[in-house]
Amino acid sequence: MIGRLNHVAIAVPDLEASAAQYRDTLGAQVGPPLDQPDHGVTVVFIDLPNTKIELLHPLGDASPVAAFLERNPSGGIHHICYEVDDIGAAAARLRAGGARVLGDGTPRIGAHGKPVLFLHPKDFNGCLIELEQI
Amino acid sequence: MIGRLNHVAIAVPDLEASAAQYRDTLGAQVGPPLDQPDHGVTVVFIDLPNTKIELLHPLGDASPVAAFLERNPSGGIHHICYEVDDIGAAAARLRAGGARVLGDGTPRIGAHGKPVLFLHPKDFNGCLIELEQI
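YS: structure for the whole thing
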């Protein structure tokens, strides 16, 4: 069912410093900061040859990343995203397997404009998993 | 400098259950458990089309994963690994950029038989980063 690893999302307390570190110290291809007000984050994409890293920083008052950074002030890996062909079929299979889909259990439109859902980290070794329909 | 994302390593409290979950619930290609006594872990590789996931479980009395699981009993993402062409040049560039290389700062042979080094998580947004020479 799951396909490519679409991205690894890292919550960071200082987006500019982290972007500079990936660009200058690690020598990666780093994009400009992009505000995504509908998702409560500002994102910097780091393009690797086979996948991407998303640096996430809170935007606005209801950011899903703010509480994570309160618990992890120096930042940390926030979630990993796997691609699926059919998000509805994926959700059904996951529920049948006993995994909890966050929210009301139905896919919503994610930060890339594609249908996504998130799985409960307690069901997956403490990892927040996003599934994105490609 | 950094190239492909070689793998995401997830520490898990129950290797068999986690492997079954990735195979049956997430429908991924899951390999057999492999003991790596020199590295204090038993590993299950999950092959995705563009990268891999490594499920890590402690093996032996001096496992580097045991303390992580004590802090995170349900598991969690332990490290991410980026590929580099020249590990010596990478170490020199990182030290010049002020990043701390763990251990004595020199590369050692990693779990895939290639030279690796690890960077201090406090220097990289709370993420433990492995660099592997390919």
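YS: worth flagging: Helices of chain B lie at 15-25, 66-71, 87-96.
IM: good catch. Also The interface with chain A takes residues 1-5, 8, 10-13, 18, 21, 24-28, 48-51, 53, 55, 72, 74-77, 80, 82, 93-94, 97-99, 121-122, 124-127 of chain B (CB under 8 Å).
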